[in-house]
Design goal:
The protein is an alpha/beta fold. The protein is built from twelve helices and 16 strands. Helix 4 (147-159) packs across helix 6 and helix 11 crosses helix 12.
Amino acid sequence: MANLLLFGRSAIGVNQLRTEKFRFSSSSFFYQLCLTKELSRFMTWRMCRKYYDIGLNLTDPMFQGIYNGKQYHASDLVHVLSRAAKVGVHQALLTGSSITESRQAAQIAQSYESSDVKLFYTIGVHPCCVNEFANHETTIDNPSNDEELNQKIPLEVLKDTRGAQAKLQELYHLVNASLHNDPLFRAIGEIGLDYDRLYYASKEMQLMFFEEQLKLSCLVDNPRVPLFLHMRTSCNDFVRIMQKFIEGFQDHEDRFQWGDRCSMPTPITYKFHPDRKFVTHSFTGTSLELKRVLELSPQSYIGINGCSLKSEENIQCAREVPLDRLLLETDAPWCDVRRTHLSFQYLGDYKSPYSSVKKDKLAKVSDCSGTTVKGRNEPCNIEQIARIVANLRGIDLAHVVDQVWQTSCEVYGS
């Protein structure tokens, strides 16, 4: 990568200047001038570029060296963040996937406040973790794997709502406390619907607590706080629910007693603040679904990562998202770009600046700072997503990076 010279929109290898094609000796004045000026331009751009990884799961046990419950190596979070900073990641949004993991995300962001990567965080309960509202132990890496049990849980919740009310109250207070006391808190999320993974939680539980968390987002002390959303194989219900909150409605049932908890007269009217921004992250839908999500609001944005770029339809969607409504993410430690993905061909001559080893070999590496773990995605890989987007759209990488940085800061703050 350091061997590329940028001539306008072209990328020329340094070694090419030594070939007969250019017919310049290494001692010629023109060669030395080109080498000095173009390397200087390239390195200046490299130092100035800024990435904002809007989807980073540092609470995942893999970053503590734990894979499927087994310890393979010590925590390498310091090195993960150092590698990210060296490729230009300036800011990252840590995902809260449950109440427990939202607290952990906040703790990590606060603990690494002096890091070269500025860390922010979200608070929310992922659709795969909504059984937490029924007091079931659940995290994003711990599915129930029992769809029959999952079907019974919403019936239990509706039979006695007190447990769910307590969890919603805990979440409400956590969001409000963070709004008032912690500038690192930036969004409510990850919330939404995921019908691909009903072995985590039933459709009924997901629908119920997507709506309840959207209600919560309207009741907290700053109703402009952005949303970080999840939509997987659920576009019709997702759009229907979001549209309901955008247009506004009255809740005559108030089954979880928000009126009592927030001292509000019922029926409560719920409506998003017109300035509220929201990102549907890790988008994997169709072109039609993309159009429907974007048409929800001018404040609707799309986040893409490696999982958003697997197929021809994915690639087409990545071309169709308006650049000023596109955000980039790694969703690490998942959603990496793989050789089997159609997007791999759009990486061009990209080469990772870091070596990689299997997870059971990392502990034996003398210097872990320049070594990643195979199969574990990291924020240092965000340049892959940017390069793919630039190449499949036929535009400059620098233009993509600059525009996405600006949009990310507008949505989630800098």
